[in-house]
């Protein structure tokens, strides 16, 4: 059965609570923009395109209740800072006259984009490739199908010999909990590793290609994605492996000239000092928890979006793509 991260019910938005996966599949009902914003902040729903879709539906909920839409916009925009899809979706919602229809359009367009990304990306994947991916850029992170994991899905439909290497993605474990779960659900052969094993596997010739998603792509192709992505891109270059980013054009932000303009979310220290109530670090320790990093365009072999593939992305090529 298809994985449904969001279910629109007219008077409410039901979100598959990703905090509880893979152990439980429970939907959380949101009735207002404030509730949706809280769900985004709490990681009930996460992944750049899924956050954008959720915010659009949150806006539509308040519109339906004739609540103040400036307040709805402000609270949703304040939920998480890095994924540009959130702001892109809210701007579309603000400009629309029929808010429910516009939210549904954003949702269905995202699904269509993912399927196109899958087709364009699959053309880049060698037969039988061992594909390393990071974080979760699958159905759970979008309206369905996924971006980087969508490329895996589309490729697997025609080539059953590919395999996935999922990095666990410390500290929030989106790889271990979510990407691994999606692969198990669909019978896609997947091996889970801890993040610090990536270089070793590459050096042993056990990886053919790396593909990841994006939270925000700057005008010059610099790409913000889950913390640790930059490390993988450096490793891929060291081992002469192709490193691809897969993302819809709603993840591009021409207003950010380069990666230094992208705001990186800093998340709570507890995500680093422990997990789900277990604590392994001493009280009083100082912690950093940036949730994203920026991979410079020069380390990216290509960006796959619904319009096609930009090889060796730079300012000119990104501009041409978005024109
Ligand atoms: O903190 P998260 O889980 O929202 O981070 C998600 C990612 O970094 C994904 O790779 C990105 O949003 C692309 S999802 C298609």
Secondary structure class reads alpha/beta
Write down the secondary-structure element order.
EEEHHHHHEHEHEHEEEHEEHEEEEEH
Order of strands across the biggest sheet?
Answer: 6-5-4-7-10-15-16
Q: Compounds present?
A: 5-S-methyl-1-O-phosphono-5-thio-D-ribulose
Q: What's the number of helices? A: 11
In the CATH hierarchy, what is the superfamily of the largest domain? Translation initiation factor eif-2b, domain 2
Helix content: 25-40%
Mean pLDDT value = 98
Query: Can you tell me the CATH architecture of the largest domain?
Result: 3-Layer(aba) Sandwich
CATH class of the largest domain: Alpha Beta
Count of extended strands = 16
Distance between the termini: 37 Å
- Assign an overall shape: globular
Main beta sheet: strand number and arrangement?
A: 7 strands, mixed
Beta-strand percent range: 15-25%
Low-pLDDT residue intervals, each spanning 5 or more residues = none
CATH fold group of the largest domain? Rossmann fold
**What is the radius of gyration computed over CA atoms, rounded to a whole number of angstroms?**
19 Å
Taken together, the total number of domains comes to 2
């Amino acid at each position: 059965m298809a994985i449904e991260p969001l279910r629109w019910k007219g008077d409410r938005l039901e979100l598959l609570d990703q905090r509880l996966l893979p152990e439980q599949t429970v939907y959380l009902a949101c009735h207002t923009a404030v509730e949706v914003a809280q769900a985004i902040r709490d990681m009930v729903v996460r992944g750049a395109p899924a956050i954008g879709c959720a915010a659009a539906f949150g806006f539509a909920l308040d519109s339906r209740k004739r609540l103040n839409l400036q307040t709805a916009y402000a609270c949703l925009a304040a939920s998480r800072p890095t994924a540009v899809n959130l702001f892109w979706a809210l701007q579309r919602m603000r400009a629309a006259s029929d808010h429910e229809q516009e939210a549904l359009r954003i949702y269905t367009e995202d699904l269509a984009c993912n399927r196109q990304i899958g087709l364009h990306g699959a053309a880049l994947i060698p037969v039988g490739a061992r594909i390393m991916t990071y974080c979760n850029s699958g159905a759970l992170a979008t309206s369905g199908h996924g971006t980087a994991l969508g490329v895996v899905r589309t490729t697997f439909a025609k080539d059953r010999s590919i395999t996935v290497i999922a990095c666990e993605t410390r500290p929030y474990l989106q790889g271990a909990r979510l990407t691994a779960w999606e692969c198990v659900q669909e019978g896609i052969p997947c091996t889970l590793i801890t993040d610090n094993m990536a270089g070793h596997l590459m050096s042993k010739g056990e990886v053919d290609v790396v593909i990841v998603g994006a939270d925000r792509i700057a005008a010059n192709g610099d790409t913000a994605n889950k913390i640790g992505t930059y490390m993988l891109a450096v490793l891929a270059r060291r081992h002469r492996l192709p490193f691809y980013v897969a993302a819809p054009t709603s993840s591009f932000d021409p207003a950010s000239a380069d990666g230094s303009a992208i705001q990186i979310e800093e998340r709570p220290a507890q995500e680093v000092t422990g997990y789900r109530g277990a604590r392994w670090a001493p009280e009083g320790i100082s912690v950093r928890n940036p949730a994203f990093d920026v991979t410079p365009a020069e380390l990216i072999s290509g960006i796959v979006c619904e319009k096609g593939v930009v090889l060796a992305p730079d300012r000119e090529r990104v501009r041409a793509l978005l024109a």
